[in-house]
Design a protein that fits this description.
There is one protein chain. By secondary structure, the chain is mainly α. 56% of the residues lie in helices and 0% in strands. The radius of gyration is 13 Å and the shape is elongated. The mean pLDDT is 89.
Length: 52
């Protein structure tokens, strides 16, 4: 089962997902962290390449 936490910045998605992963012994995976580790700054990427 996959659970996606989607919403605006600052809404508590990361905090809630981390807590759920602890409570239920699930794997927590943050796409923003993955992106930043592999491609760098998200804002800079969007400014350079846009959303497409």
């Amino acid at each position: 089962m996959l659970i996606y936490f989607i919403g605006p910045g600052g809404a508590g998605k990361t905090t809630l997902a981390k807590q759920f992963s602890k409570d239920f012994g699930a794997i927590y995976y943050d796409l923003d962290e993955h992106f930043m580790l592999n491609l760098g700054n998200i804002s800079q990427f969007i400014n350079t390449y846009g959303y497409k």
